[in-house]
Amino acid sequence: MNVLTGTRAARVVDDPAEAAKIIAGAKNPLYVLGPDAVRLAAGDKLLIDYALNIAASRDIPICATAHVKRKLVEYGKKADSTYDIIEIVHFLKMPDWKGVRGQGQHDLVLFSGVRCDLAERGLSTLKHFAPHLRTFAICRRGHPNADYTVPVTARGDRWIEYLQGLVAALG
Fold it and tell me: Is CATH 3.40.50.720 the classification given to domain 11-170?
């Protein structure tokens, strides 16, 4: 048993095409974007650029946390909801919550750009108290409390390749 994750740890999804299949298989996904999405560069783009492409590929609703909403407005986009990370995790724990679009609880929640300590606490909470959904951390640092996570990538070029591959696979 791992002292950080308990009996369940994230499955590392090395192949962007496999990640795309997981995302495409979700019936009602949600994308939670944190402040690092508008701050962190991935090559000549920001993380939010890739996240918006991922969300657009499957009409995935976006929950903007922190100051992400302002950046979305600059891009001419509208967030489906604006909560802080603690609030959205609280709602996601409730099996009878109707989701950000009122279409029912989400079955897959993608996380990008959420500060690591908050992401880990939120993902751990969902792992233990929201068995009705799965989580996918699309973050170059990896998150063991998610159900799925991308490989830890110290090199920026590998991270960019992964994001580009994921966007391409989602088409």
Answer: no
Does residue 4 have a pLDDT over 90? no
Which pLDDT does position 7 carry in this prediction?
Answer: 67
Q: What do you get for the CA distance between the two ends of the chain, in Å?
A: 38
Q: What is the DSSP letter of 133?
A: -
Residue 139's alpha-carbon distances to 10, 120, 148, 158, in angstroms, are 13, 11, 11, 12
Would you say 106 and 23 are in contact if contact means Cβ atoms under 8 Å apart? no
118: number of CA atoms within 13 Å, CB side? Answer: 18
- In angstroms, the CA 36 to CA 143 distance is 15
Per-residue burial over 131-141, b = 16 or more CB atoms within 10 Å of its CB, e = otherwise? eebbbbbbbbe
pLDDT of residue 138: 97
- Asked whether the whole model's pTM tops 0.90, one would answer yes
Rounded CA separation 155/99 (Å): 36
SS3 state at 122: helix
Q: What percent of the chain has pLDDT over 70?
A: 96
Q: Is 9 exposed, middle or buried (0-12, 13-18, 19+ CB in 10 A)?
A: middle
Instruction: Give the DSSP letter of residue 81.
Output: E
